[in-house]
Amino acid sequence: MNIEARHWLAKPLSLFMALVLASWPLPVGLGLLRPDWVFLVVLFWVLRVNSMSLGLVWVIGVFVDVQMGTVLGMHALAMSVVSWLGQQIESRLRGMSPWQTAVIVGFFDTLYRLVNWLVMHAFQTNIYDLNYFWPVLTTMLVWPILLAVMRLEGVRI
């Protein structure tokens, strides 16, 4: 199988796995620390040059909204905002180590969760609990692992 075919298969398979991991049942204590899997995979593909458009990111966000039962467009808006910012700085991230990019990913995840929190606050439920932001830490810790797994498959940022 040539490299282009592997890359073509890697994107939908990684997105499918992220959707599965996002809805996988966890114990209550661990559920608070669940990384934002779909966000991580979408950001990975956005940071690859010309790999994912904002329209596709929006559609994936709508799938996440339907899967999670949230306000339609909430995750789509947050993913689109963060993906646009990621596209703006993707060339600067190329020279950074995985741990340095994990800090940037943590900032992006905080922004992603903040946009989601604002939409939930405006339309759905009021979340005044700071536990909502704990997954940012686990998302930052999972980022270098995601990079290593994708590099094993021959996909690089």
List the helices and strands and how they pair.
Blueprint lengths: L2 H21 L4 H4 L5 H11 L6 H15 L5 H20 L4 H26 L11 H18 L5
Helix pairs in contact: 1-3, 3-5, 3-7, 4-5, 5-6, 6-7
Notes on the protein architecture:
The protein is an all-alpha fold. The protein has one domain (3-20, 37-152). Helices cover 73% and strands 0% of the residues. Helix 3 crosses helix 7 and helix 6 (98-123) packs across helix 7. The radius of gyration is 15 Å and the shape is globular.
Describe, in short, the structure shown:
Helix content is 73%, strand content 0%.
Supply the number of helical segments. Answer: 7
Q: Major sheet: size, sense and barrel closure?
A: none
The unreliable regions are none
Strand content: under 5%
Quote the average pLDDT.
89
Helical content stands at over 70%
The 3D shape can be described as globular
N-to-C CA distance: 20 Å
User: What is the number of E strands?
Assistant: 0
